[in-house]
């Protein structure tokens, strides 16, 4: 075992834990901040009020709460989203630090402390769901690393060399004036790979204990199972984090065949090298890292997925491809898995840009967050050159969104900002309202708690259902048609607040005045407009009695079909024996009534009353 590992991980974990706890406490003491925190908070509050109900009726006419995450809303409802994020940040920091120590990188302490800053910056942006998933994904990588011997361990069956007998000197150093053995000539292939059972530098074979001896079979199986379970849980917490865990597994899977091809040199030799290559002891862990996310995401997407597309600009894609290329070029060749992961990140970014999907710009989190910690830990550069490189990477793409930090404690993030609007709407007829989205989307928390919103805060769903706001131009005719098609009764705007970047055109239209928007109320913060000619949430002769995040209640005076402008979902159910549900036109829901009366449309993981 190398000397640095005999000293144990405490020298890495102690400063890592201390710095992470300090920054997490500072985060908890600071006011609310981050563009994404509102979405996390809203989901936690929905779960606290409605439990495992799968559909949130307060956003987008009904949206699945579990398409975003299966785990974080229940955990956030239990202990609070900000505390959950702080704990996840500490856990991720410790796991990352242990991983750097365990893999024997050059500067584990520097890399781990850079990781602490990165995970704290992730908290500043409010990405609590991703923080939880990332902590679990890093824990999965730790479990995979625990199944591998320390870098530099002797091969199976061989012990460390015995020290020389007392009184005998160590072998003499090379004679003065003699040079060390010459490096291989340019163009020559690297030396042949080490024999089976030997350390493959950063990613040695599984099945050995810390001294290089075989592990017990049950422990190997337990570690493989832990890798699978943790990577699956990471996916259920955050599909993006699960994707990154799978990418790490793919990098490990490709290390051996790619290395065999590169060592072979010529094309013919490369083919021969690939044919002679066989799976080694790393494969169980690597396959678990790949299969865990895939098998976890498949049912989650099929049963609860909301679909949609995450916007991703060409400029952002190019910036982050450059970061991944830097990793490939700077990371030493003795760490092939890290270099392959950098190359796979380039592929991921290109795919996320050219193939519309819910991933989109979320793919950039991998290079944005990990480039600086990885380079700080493994780059074989002097201090000055390394510092210059890290400063250049930070200048090119900082991992901290400064605007999120600067807007901490903004008025829009406080309940008082929304109180007058909510009170005014409480005295009006129930219906759906469009609040022009604020920059940090806190209306999706405080307004949605009392009245259903036409929109909310899930970008992928918004681009799918409300594509007009993401086009080149928003016309008054398009906007009014959208309001009526979505059964919007009122439009509210806070003229003094900064809108979301995709809501600027909408804000301009509302403030300039439209004939179809009749002013009905205003105060020093809000203006409220009634939509003339608005379609009702339920079709005549039914009457809307109540509408909230948990469902829609209506009175039906006669038998027949009632169109309820709530998005159809397999999880919808209706209370009452005299009616059933079926999918209606334009993706809405039809309530088929056999017995007149009052009915409440809700959702359940065990839905009933389908026609």
Automatic annotation (TrEMBL):
Residues 154-205 are annotated as: Disordered. Residues 161-174 have a biased composition (Pro residues). This is Uncharacterized protein. Keywords: Membrane, Transmembrane, Transmembrane helix. Residues 175-190 have a biased composition (Low complexity). The chain crosses the membrane at residues 12-30, 79-101, 108-124, 130-150, 222-238, 244-265, 286-306, 312-331, 338-356.
